[in-house]
Structures are given as C-alpha cells and as structure tokens.
Specification:
The chain is built from three helices and 16 strands. It is mainly beta. It has a 16-stranded antiparallel β-sheet that branches. The longest helix has 18 residues.
C-alpha cells in the first residue's frame, strides 16, 4: 500500500510540472534517411525504454497532406509512467494521461527488446473517429497489441478485423436502393523509414524509426440497382496514420496527415455495368479528413 501511495503521489507531482510547461520548445523535426531500410531488421533496440517516473510532453498541431505540422499548438498532452507490474503475463507499465491538463483515460505499455505492445486504449480512438463508420462500430475486447517491431517489416495489429455488420447506409447511393454494408477494419503496420532528429533535452542527434498504420476497410455492399437487379459488390478504403520513436527517448510523434477517405464498391458484373451506364465502381463515401498530431517537446527518461 505504501508503494502504491508513493506511485500515485509521483504521478500527481509530475502532473503539476507538466501542466505548467510552455509550448516554446518544439524540436520534433524528423529528417528521414534517403535510403529506406524497412526490410532490414533494426539493430538498435532502445526506442521504447521506460521506467516509473518517465514522462513525455507533446504539443498538438494541425497536420497537412505532406505530414507537416502547421499553425500554433491547439493543445498539450502528457504521458506519465505511473506504475509497473505484470499484466496478462507481460512485464508492463501503466501510464497516466493528461489531455490539455485534464486527466484522461490511460493505457499500458509492455516494452520488449525488439517490440512494443500496448493496450487497445492506445489505438482504438483512431478507429472510433473514422468518418462514416464511427457511429456504427463496436470495438471488442483486445489483449496486448503489437504497435512497433524492429525485426518485422509488416504485420496486422488486430487478431481479427473489427466488424461492422448489416449497416444500412443512411443516404442514397446513385443507382442503388436500400444499400447495406458488411465490412471489417484491420490495421496493418509497416516500418516506413528510419531517420534522425535533435534530442530536445540534450541537443544531440538521435536515430528515429517511423511506422505507418494503414486502417484498411474491406467488405461488401448489397442492395438493388435501378430497382431491378440485386447487387453485392466488394468495397475498399483506407486511412493512414504514423508513429515515430526516437532512440533513448520513446514516442516522439503520433500523427494523421490530412487525407481523403474514399470507400469504393467495385462492379465486376457486366450486366450491372450496363445498368450503371458503364461504371466500374460506385462511390460509397468520400470526405476529406483534417490531419492532426502530437509532437514531443520535452521528456524525462
């Protein structure tokens, strides 16, 4: 009990420090290497070291289509490693999270030599904010999810796709009546690039490792075309986000660039193509999604 009280007191003290930090020291500028080494295992494995008392402070910005932040910070977040222990057979650390100074829902990390695992609370907010499907999605209970790996080029994040079943589309699709969607969302993570950045505390140049997370939407749309012919067509769409780790620091950037989310139904049936005037695809949904991201300004490890 004494140890638990001391850990909570540490988190409280750190929160006082973090809330009072200014936004002036934003040094998270990652320079990609000209040679992409995503297919080669990374030999340096100190990208996610942490201990009780480690904290990271981030400024939040709007992010353009080129993955560059712009404007002034919109808010500030902080992550504090408050406790350690064993969770689901893994040595883990539980983080206290503050969103613009307000206590928010936390999550846990399980760092290993070549990989970093997180609880679902770290990634599911992205799923819950995907336009079009966010009001229909139910996220199941997940165990540990591998968010980063220095030895594997690409992998699926979720044990199985998150399903959206029998979703009646709440608007008319050109040429299709009573459209219904059945789809799944899977996150595919791949090592995108290595690079360097200036350590915001020491001023030294450190190595970085960036991962791309592709939120892939697949499934089918069914309905009736021109009130005459049944249709069942495959659909596809994707959104992208990125996370960057720095050697000896941890997570330094977590962002989604501005992008257009397009969900398309492919038409393979020749008769359907005729009814649709020669169309080979139908647009189910299209919307520009504004980019946003968190970028490190200060840390203690």
């Amino acid at each position: 009990m004494k140890n638990r009280i001391s850990q909570l007191f540490l988190a409280f003290c750190l929160s006082i420090i973090l809330v009072g930090c200014s936004d002036d020291d934003d040094n998270t500028v990652v320079t990609p290497n000209p040679l992409d080494t995503t297919s080669t295992p990374i030999t340096n494995n100190n990208y996610w070291s942490m201990k009780v008392g480690t904290y990271w402070i981030y400024d939040n910005y709007a992010v353009n289509t080129e993955s560059a932040k712009f404007g002034s910070p919109t808010s500030q977040d902080s992550i504090i490693i408050a406790t350690s222990g064993t969770i689901d057979s893994k040595s883990a650390y539980t983080a206290t999270v503050y969103k613009n100074g307000n206590l928010s829902e936390g999550y846990s990390f399980a760092p290993e030599k070549n990989a970093l695992y997180v609880t679902a609370d770290f990634v599911t907010p992205v799923i819950q904010n995907i336009p079009f499907v966010k009001d229909y999605i139910t996220i199941p209970e997940f165990g540990w999810l591998k968010i980063a790996d220095t030895q594997t080029a690409s992998w699926e994040l979720f044990p199985s796709p998150i399903k959206v079943e029998n979703m009646a589309i709440p608007y008319e699709i050109t040429g299709v009546t009573n459209p219904v969607l059945n789809m799944g969302i899977q996150a595919i993570i791949s090592r995108k690039s290595t690079g360097t950045m200036v350590n915001p505390v020491t001023g030294a140049t450190v190595n970085t490792l960036t991962f791309e997370i592709k939120y892939e939407i697949t499934g089918t749309v069914s309905g009736t075309v021109m009130s005459v012919m049944p249709i069942e067509a495959e659909i596809s769409g994707a959104m992208y986000s990125y996370i960057t780790f720095a050697e000896g620091i941890g997570l330094v950037a977590n962002y989604r660039p501005t992008q257009t989310l397009s969900i398309i139904a492919s038409i393979d049936n020749a008769a359907l193509k005729v009814l649709l005037g020669g169309q080979e695809s139908i647009s189910i949904f299209e919307e520009e999604v504004e980019g946003e991201g968190s970028f490190l300004i200060r840390y203690n490890n």
